[in-house]
Automatic annotation (TrEMBL):
<dbReference type="Pfam" id="PF00294">
    <property type="entry name" value="PfkB"/>
</dbReference>
<feature type="domain" description="Carbohydrate kinase PfkB">
    <location>
        <begin position="23"/>
        <end position="295"/>
    </location>
</feature>
<dbReference type="InterPro" id="IPR002173">
    <property type="entry name" value="Carboh/pur_kinase_PfkB_CS"/>
</dbReference>
<comment type="pathway">
    <text>Carbohydrate metabolism; D-tagatose 6-phosphate degradation; D-glyceraldehyde 3-phosphate and glycerone phosphate from D-tagatose 6-phosphate: step 1/2.</text>
</comment>
<keyword id="KW-0547">Nucleotide-binding</keyword>
<comment type="similarity">
    <text>Belongs to the carbohydrate kinase pfkB family.</text>
</comment>
<comment type="similarity">
    <text>Belongs to the carbohydrate kinase PfkB family. LacC subfamily.</text>
</comment>
<dbReference type="InterPro" id="IPR022463">
    <property type="entry name" value="1-PFruKinase"/>
</dbReference>
<protein>
    <recommendedName>
        <fullName>Tagatose-6-phosphate kinase</fullName>
        <ecNumber>2.7.1.144</ecNumber>
    </recommendedName>
</protein>
<dbReference type="InterPro" id="IPR011611">
    <property type="entry name" value="PfkB_dom"/>
</dbReference>
<keyword id="KW-0808">Transferase</keyword>
<dbReference type="GO" id="GO:0008662">
    <property type="term" value="F:1-phosphofructokinase activity"/>
</dbReference>
<keyword id="KW-0423">Lactose metabolism</keyword>
<comment type="function">
    <text>Catalyzes the ATP-dependent phosphorylation of fructose-l-phosphate to fructose-l,6-bisphosphate.</text>
</comment>
<dbReference type="InterPro" id="IPR017583">
    <property type="entry name" value="Tagatose/fructose_Pkinase"/>
</dbReference>
<keyword id="KW-0418">Kinase</keyword>
<dbReference type="InterPro" id="IPR029056">
    <property type="entry name" value="Ribokinase-like"/>
</dbReference>
Amino acid sequence: MIVTVTVNPAMDKTAEIDCLRPHALNRLAGVVSDVGGKGINVSKTIAALGRQSVACGFLAGQTGLSIGQTLQNWPGGGIRPDFLTVPGETRTNLKLVEPGGALTELNEQGPRLSTADLEALARKLEGYAAPGTLFVLAGSVGPGVPPELYRDLTLRLRQKGAKVFVDADGPLFARALEATPDIIKPNAFELGQYFGLDHIPAGEELIRLGRTLAGRGIGLVCISMGGEGACFVQGERVWRAPALPVTPRSSVGAGDAMVAAIACGVEEELPVEDCLRLAMAVSAGAVTTRGTRPPDRETVEQLLPQVQLMGPVC
Ligand SMILES: Nc1ncnc2c1ncn2[C@@H]1O[C@H](COP(=O)(O)OP(=O)(O)OP(=O)(O)O)[C@@H](O)[C@H]1O
Ligand SMILES: O=P(O)(O)OC[C@@]1(O)O[C@H](CO)[C@@H](O)[C@@H]1O
């Protein structure tokens, strides 16, 4: 069973804009709204791949209600929403896409959560935790939430035999690594930030950093590099894959699509290289859709044979 956790969901509004001008009036076209937040996007993609997940986290106010209903009635089923309701209003995030794909994201903070809310979530998740459960802890956590949240959840859930996949950034990511999650998916920027670099790592440096994390016991380190592709490290083995040549429409959620594909592959116990190929095809497919919509299975099937997975290098 896959359980996605979105502590800070969002209604994503994606708009097209000719050229973003700061400090000026900008007019938007082609606005689409999608239920989102990283864990929810992972659930959406898992459903698109024909599999099931439970989606947990917090929802608030009218926006939260609308997200909950949308997930409940997700076309084809595939998502079982099990959210806690909290006071306030779930955020709305604005994504501005310029021709050629340049992206500006304006993300709200989201509702404030109490210690009691977080404990209620931990207990709910513990109810699902067992060997065979894979938790995906993804995205920011909102104001007032200690950066130790993912670390503490990882420790509690792994104690019950579950696996944990973390996709986060900043202190939340750094603290989560203290609990040695089973799988992580930083992008290259987040990886550089974690290691205190003043630049975005690439090439041999990126591989060395990935190996450092794998050497600490993280089972699979997936490093995404946007249009440059991805690098994967498992133990001593390293794979690289260039991004597939797709026509980008919105890259928002491409990382979540990659997380979803790997989660599905792990749940299905696919050989690791099949998981990585699926990750490349599904994430490229996500780039071709509007907003944070997942790719359909046909698109993924078409992209899969084009994936060039290089490695493993030991
Ligand atoms: N322009 C692109 N063309 C083809 N594939 C892409 C492109 N951008 C992203 N991808 C695919 O999606 C994967 C994840 O992208 P990216 O590194 O941007 O994730 P991310 O930073 O976690 O994004 P997000 O947080 O919006 O989900 C890449 O490794 C690649 O496989
Ligand atoms: O503010 P966070 O939680 O870091 O990211 C939230 C978010 O940008 O991530 C998803 C894309 O990955 C969007 O659906 C959502 O708006």
